[in-house]
Every structure is written in structure tokens, then in C-alpha cells.
Amino acid sequence: MERSVMSLSSLLVLACLVGYGTAQSVQNVSAHWVDFSAKENDWDMNKANDVYCKIYDADKPYEWRSKYNWTNIGDLAGFSIDEACGKCIHVTNRATGDETTVRIVGPTGHGLELDKPVFDQLDSDGQGQVVGHLIVSYKFVDCNPTPPGPGESNVRADYSKDYNPIENDWTYPSHAECAIKDGGKPLEWRKRHGWTGYCGKYKTFNPEDNCCKCLKVTNTDTKDSVTVRIMDTCGGEVEALVLDYETAFKPIDTDGKGYEAGHLTVDYEFVECDDDVLVYSQ
Asked: What sequence ranges are listed for the domain Barwin (predicted)?
């Protein structure tokens, strides 16, 4: 099996928990290429080159085996390699911002070993080919995320006075789930919409999956509505949303009954954020 040359001096692995369970993020790690020849072998793990996880996953359906390109992984984020087989990570080239999701099919000593086609996909500027590796970040993600649907009807929306975006110049609080992903975005972006924590029907085990998405929330009693941006998670025991009081809850609680009750009954739907009207460098 052909491999790119490893450069140990280029390895810097920093693992930090960014969410719940398997929502683990690893920053600034080397990704080399390896020739599994998955596509050439019709995604057959028994025929492809050196696929460790074939002992668990070779009998999975073709649609499962071919859904994502493959990778070996060094930092298992607390899993054993047997537990990691078949899980997915979302990989981002730190230099270009190119990103994709890949499936774990085996271990490696350091960083990642990406199948050559997905290495080339991430190496859009060609520098990975030149130096023999990429510097990437990755996080564990759901291999089968539930796509956002039309939303939900007649669900509970609580409120929070802890975010205080107006008083804090729309700075994401450090405890907000989306602070790492979105807290550094421009002020114009952060203040474009009111804020909400989300724990509704379409939540995943990786709360970051819903970060920065927008919802149109409608008070079922008054029919007032507001567009809000997801910037946190919430408990979800009974509520679907936890709306920031000033920027999201109060604007649709026009009769004051929600504040009296401590919550509103709302409908919500996923909508476009219209961020393309903002011009900024990210």
C-alpha cells in the first residue's frame, strides 16, 4: 500500500471536548494519504488494501460502505479502534478551508491517513501533494444526521436572560455550545438575528450540527413571529427552544402572557438566514 512520507516534526495534536459524547474535536494534526483503492474495488473492504475494520463492516450494505470516503485515524478520542470502526469524522484543511466527512476504517500511529481521492479533494491548492501531508482539524460527527425538516408545531419555548447579547455587544458567552464555531464571526453576522438555544426534534449527539442555522418562531396565540439563530443547545426535557429574552422571546410575547407563564407555545420552521447580504471577510 502506497503511503505519503510521514513527518513527525509536523505533528501537533490538540484534543479538546467541544460537546457531548463523541463530539470530540482535534486541531492541527497531519493528514497523509494512503491508497485503499476503495472505489476501484467497488467499496469491497475485503478486496481493498489493508482495511482493518473489514472484520466488523465488510458485510454492511454497499450504500453504507460507499457513502463516505475512508480514513485511518490515530487519535481515537477515547474509543478503542474496534469501537471507532465505522464512525465518521468531519475533516477541514486548515490552509484552504476545504472540508468533507469520512468514515473510519482502521488505525494509524499518528494523525489521519486519508484515502488518496479524498486527500486530493481537500488539497485544492496542491500544497499537500508538494509537502506530503495536510494540516487538518477534525471532529466526530453523526454519519446519518437528521436533515432539517419543516420544524415542529405546538412546542414549548422557554426563555433565558443569561445570554445578554445587547449588553455584551453580541459576544457569544463561553458556555454557549456554538461559541467555538461561530463566536469569532463578525459583529454584523452575530447581531443579524435574535438568539436561541435548540433542543428540538432535529438535535443530534453533536450539538454543533445545528449551529448558525436559523428558525422562524411563531407564537401560536398572538401569531407574532421572529427569526432567530441557533447559538446554543438546551436541556430538552420539556422544551424545544430556549429563546434569548430580549432578542427572541419578548418580540413575540406581545401580550405578556408568555412571561407570566414562564414559556410560550410556538411553531417553528428552519429558514434561510439571508447571510449572503452581508459582505465580510471570514
From this structure: 24-145, 150-275
pLDDT at 147: 58
| Domain interval for residue 42 | 8-141
Count Cβ neighbours within 10 Å for each residue of 196-211 and write b for 16 or more, e otherwise: bbbbbebbbebbbbbb
Whole-number pLDDT of residue 149: 67
Same domain, 128 and 158: no
User: In the predicted model, what is the mean pLDDT of residues 147-153?
Assistant: 78
Q: Is-above-0.85 flag for pTM?
A: no
Q: Which helix (H) or strand (E) holds 117?
A: helix 116-122
Higher pLDDT, 208 or 7: 208
Dist CA 145 CA 148 (whole Å): 9
Report d(CA 168, CA 174) in Å as an integer: 12
How would DSSP label each residue in 14-72?
A: EEEE-SSTT-EEEEEEEEEEE---TTTTTT-TTTSSS-TTHHHHTTS-HHHHHSSEEEE
pLDDT digits (tens, 9 = 90+) for 79-107: 788 989 999 999 999 999 999 999 999 99
Residue 102: CATH number of its domain: 2.40.40.10
pLDDT tens per residue across span 156-184: 999 999 999 999 999 999 999 999 889 99
Residue 65 in contact with residue 51, Cβ under 8 Å? no
- Per the CB < 8 A criterion, the answer to whether 165 and 249 are in contact is no
Residue 204 lies in a domain: yes
CB 83 within 8 A of CB 118: no
